[in-house]
Protein backbone atom coordinates (compact mmCIF):
# COMPACT_ATOMS: atom_id res chain seq x y z
CA UNK A 1 0.00 0.00 0.00
CA UNK A 2 1.27 3.46 -0.86
CA UNK A 3 2.41 5.75 1.91
CA UNK A 4 0.42 8.89 2.54
CA UNK A 5 1.38 12.26 3.92
CA UNK A 6 -0.84 14.02 6.43
CA UNK A 7 -0.93 17.23 8.39
CA UNK A 8 -3.40 19.09 10.59
CA UNK A 9 -4.25 22.70 11.40
CA UNK A 10 -6.76 24.42 13.69
CA UNK A 11 -9.03 27.01 12.10
CA UNK A 12 -10.92 29.66 14.07
CA UNK A 13 -14.30 28.83 12.55
CA UNK A 14 -17.10 26.28 12.77
CA UNK A 15 -16.81 23.08 10.71
CA UNK A 16 -19.70 24.17 8.43
CA UNK A 17 -17.78 27.32 7.49
CA UNK A 18 -14.62 25.33 6.76
CA UNK A 19 -16.48 22.75 4.67
CA UNK A 20 -18.20 25.56 2.81
CA UNK A 21 -14.83 26.82 1.60
CA UNK A 22 -13.59 23.30 0.79
CA UNK A 23 -16.74 22.63 -1.28
CA UNK A 24 -16.45 25.91 -3.24
CA UNK A 25 -14.21 24.57 -6.03
CA UNK A 26 -14.71 27.56 -8.32
CA UNK A 27 -12.75 29.69 -5.86
CA UNK A 28 -9.80 27.29 -5.36
CA UNK A 29 -7.51 29.32 -7.67
CA UNK A 30 -8.03 32.30 -5.33
CA UNK A 31 -6.56 30.59 -2.27
CA UNK A 32 -4.81 27.28 -2.97
CA UNK A 33 -1.77 28.46 -4.90
CA UNK A 34 -1.29 25.16 -6.76
CA UNK A 35 -4.74 25.00 -8.38
CA UNK A 36 -4.78 27.27 -11.43
CA UNK A 37 -8.23 26.20 -12.74
CA UNK A 38 -11.17 24.30 -11.24
CA UNK A 39 -14.33 23.15 -13.01
CA UNK A 40 -17.14 21.10 -11.43
CA UNK A 41 -18.11 18.48 -14.03
CA UNK A 42 -20.94 16.81 -12.10
CA UNK A 43 -22.81 17.16 -8.79
CA UNK A 44 -24.80 14.84 -6.54
CA UNK A 45 -28.47 15.24 -5.61
CA UNK A 46 -27.46 17.57 -2.77
CA UNK A 47 -25.55 19.87 -5.13
CA UNK A 48 -22.08 18.82 -3.93
CA UNK A 49 -19.37 18.14 -6.48
CA UNK A 50 -18.95 14.54 -7.60
CA UNK A 51 -16.32 15.11 -10.30
CA UNK A 52 -14.02 18.11 -10.61
CA UNK A 53 -11.41 18.96 -13.24
CA UNK A 54 -8.35 20.69 -11.76
CA UNK A 55 -5.31 22.21 -13.42
CA UNK A 56 -2.47 21.87 -10.92
CA UNK A 57 0.98 23.45 -10.82
CA UNK A 58 2.83 22.29 -7.71
CA UNK A 59 6.43 22.68 -8.86
CA UNK A 60 7.54 19.11 -9.52
CA UNK A 61 3.95 18.07 -10.23
CA UNK A 62 2.07 19.84 -13.04
CA UNK A 63 -1.13 18.26 -14.32
CA UNK A 64 -4.65 18.58 -15.71
CA UNK A 65 -6.71 15.94 -13.93
CA UNK A 66 -10.20 14.93 -12.84
CA UNK A 67 -11.06 13.82 -9.31
CA UNK A 68 -14.12 11.98 -7.97
CA UNK A 69 -15.34 13.23 -4.58
CA UNK A 70 -17.15 11.35 -1.80
CA UNK A 71 -18.82 13.38 0.94
CA UNK A 72 -19.32 11.82 4.38
CA UNK A 73 -21.80 13.95 6.27
CA UNK A 74 -20.62 17.49 6.86
CA UNK A 75 -17.24 16.63 8.32
CA UNK A 76 -15.30 14.65 5.72
CA UNK A 77 -14.63 14.66 2.01
CA UNK A 78 -12.33 12.30 0.16
CA UNK A 79 -11.26 12.05 -3.46
CA UNK A 80 -9.70 9.65 -5.93
CA UNK A 81 -8.19 10.17 -9.35
CA UNK A 82 -10.43 9.56 -12.38
CA UNK A 83 -8.03 10.63 -15.14
CA UNK A 84 -4.75 12.45 -15.46
CA UNK A 85 -1.93 13.27 -17.83
CA UNK A 86 0.88 12.83 -15.31
CA UNK A 87 -0.52 11.07 -12.24
CA UNK A 88 -1.13 7.39 -11.64
CA UNK A 89 -3.04 8.11 -8.43
CA UNK A 90 -4.08 11.09 -6.33
CA UNK A 91 -6.07 10.10 -3.27
CA UNK A 92 -6.78 12.37 -0.36
CA UNK A 93 -9.21 13.62 2.22
CA UNK A 94 -10.10 16.47 4.53
CA UNK A 95 -11.46 15.45 7.93
CA UNK A 96 -12.98 18.13 10.17
CA UNK A 97 -13.29 17.80 13.95
CA UNK A 98 -15.05 20.53 15.96
CA UNK A 99 -13.23 21.85 19.02
CA UNK A 100 -14.06 24.47 21.67
CA UNK A 101 -17.76 23.69 21.46
CA UNK A 102 -17.76 23.97 17.66
CA UNK A 103 -16.20 27.45 17.50
CA UNK A 104 -12.94 26.03 16.11
CA UNK A 105 -12.17 23.19 13.71
CA UNK A 106 -9.21 20.84 13.54
CA UNK A 107 -8.66 19.99 9.87
CA UNK A 108 -6.60 16.94 8.90
CA UNK A 109 -5.52 16.62 5.27
CA UNK A 110 -4.25 13.28 3.97
CA UNK A 111 -2.72 12.90 0.52
CA UNK A 112 -1.16 10.13 -1.55
CA UNK A 113 0.33 10.97 -4.95
CA UNK A 114 1.82 8.55 -7.45
CA UNK A 115 3.22 9.90 -10.71
CA UNK A 116 3.59 8.07 -14.02
CA UNK A 117 7.18 9.20 -14.46
CA UNK A 118 9.92 7.82 -12.21
CA UNK A 119 10.38 10.00 -9.13
CA UNK A 120 12.26 9.31 -5.93
CA UNK A 121 9.95 8.60 -3.00
CA UNK A 122 11.61 11.37 -1.01
CA UNK A 123 10.83 13.95 -3.73
CA UNK A 124 7.26 12.66 -4.04
CA UNK A 125 6.70 12.95 -0.25
CA UNK A 126 8.17 16.47 -0.30
CA UNK A 127 5.76 17.47 -3.09
CA UNK A 128 2.86 16.01 -1.08
CA UNK A 129 3.98 17.91 2.02
CA UNK A 130 4.24 21.20 0.08
CA UNK A 131 0.75 20.68 -1.40
CA UNK A 132 -0.74 19.87 2.02
CA UNK A 133 0.98 22.67 3.92
CA UNK A 134 0.06 25.32 1.34
CA UNK A 135 -3.51 24.03 1.09
CA UNK A 136 -4.02 24.06 4.86
CA UNK A 137 -2.45 27.52 5.25
CA UNK A 138 -4.55 28.84 2.36
CA UNK A 139 -7.72 27.23 3.75
CA UNK A 140 -7.10 28.73 7.20
CA UNK A 141 -6.48 32.20 5.76
CA UNK A 142 -9.51 31.99 3.46
CA UNK A 143 -11.93 30.77 6.16
CA UNK A 144 -10.70 33.12 8.87
CA UNK A 145 -10.84 36.16 6.59
CA UNK A 146 -14.46 35.49 5.58
CA UNK A 147 -17.13 37.82 6.98
CA UNK A 148 -18.67 36.31 10.10
CA UNK A 149 -16.16 33.44 10.25
CA UNK A 150 -15.23 33.69 13.94
CA UNK A 151 -17.15 30.55 14.81
CA UNK A 152 -20.46 31.62 13.27
CA UNK A 153 -22.07 28.90 11.18
CA UNK A 154 -23.32 29.86 7.78
CA UNK A 155 -20.60 32.22 6.55
CA UNK A 156 -20.43 29.92 3.54
CA UNK A 157 -23.29 27.79 2.34
CA UNK A 158 -22.92 24.47 0.62
CA UNK A 159 -23.49 24.67 -3.12
CA UNK A 160 -27.11 23.89 -3.84
CA UNK A 161 -28.17 24.52 -0.24
UniProtKB/TrEMBL annotation:
InterPro entries: COQ10_START (IPR005031), START-like_dom_sf (IPR023393). Transmembrane segments: none annotated. Residues 11-139 form the Coenzyme Q-binding protein COQ10 START domain. It comes from the Bacteria. Pfam families: Polyketide_cyc (PF03364). PANTHER family: COENZYME Q-BINDING PROTEIN COQ10 START DOMAIN-CONTAINING PROTEIN, CONSERVED PROTEIN TB16.3. This is Cyclase.
Amino acid sequence: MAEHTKSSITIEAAPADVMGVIADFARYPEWTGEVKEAEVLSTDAGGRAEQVRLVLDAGAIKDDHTLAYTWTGGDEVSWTLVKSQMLRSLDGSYQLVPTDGGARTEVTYRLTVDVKIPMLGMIKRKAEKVIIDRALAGLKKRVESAPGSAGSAGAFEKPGA
